[in-house]
Design brief:
This protein is an alpha/beta fold and 182 residues long. It is built from six helices and eight strands, in the order βββαααβββαβαβα.
Length: 182
């Protein structure tokens, strides 16, 4: 469970990210979200809200079945040379609302970038991109790895259908050299 330090009258809660990144030395792509949702924090793994389309999109991009366990998701990511983490280590937030995020402490991207030859960092949505550029841009040198903002897989991004999201993500991943996708 996430560590809840304080909740104030406005509904803000100080939340600390309590589960680690998924990566290994063979990771070529790093996908970053902003901060795990309430459901993800409860499940202690990424994209745990049943309406979030992250796992459906990635499974379609790689032509695989949607993994349904933490072990299956971890295996899926590593088998496809994908690292997964979030920009934020801790922040004040109301529920799962990215727009409410304040008092950010960023994760140390050097943990993954020094261990793996990541060619591309994909930011899952505008808030992840904004926070990465503000707090983590220092980890990118001479535009390596490449930084790509992708449309959010969150259910809050209702303007993007599953098919449209999948095509956008597929095209972005396809354009990375050495990565095979359907």
């Amino acid at each position: 469970m996430s560590r809840k330090e304080t909740t104030d009258i406005t509904g803000y809660e100080h939340v600390t990210h309590t589960f680690g990144p998924v990566y290994d030395q063979d990771s070529k792509i790093l996908i970053l979200g902003s901060m795990p949702s309430v459901k993800s924090r409860e499940q202690q793994f990424y994209y745990g809200h049943p309406q979030n389309r992250f796992w459906k999109v990635l499974a379609a991009v790689y032509g695989e079945q949607v993994p349904d366990t933490i072990a299956g998701k971890t295996d899926f990511l590593l088998r496809n040379h994908v690292a997964l983490w979030d920009v934020i280590a801790s922040c004040d937030i109301v529920g799962s609302s990215d727009s409410s995020i304040r008092n950010v402490r960023a994760n140390d991207m050097g943990v993954i970038l020094s261990a793996a030859d990541v060619s591309t960092i994909f930011l899952n949505g505008g808030k992840a991109y904004e926070l990465f550029m503000k707090y983590c841009r220092k980890y990118v040198h001479e535009d390596k790895p490449m930084i790509v903002k992708l449309p959010s897989t969150s259910p809050a991004n209702a303007a993007w259908s599953l098919d449209r999201l999948t095509e956008a993500w597929r095209e972005a991943v396809r354009n990375r050299k050495g990565i095979s996708v359907l």
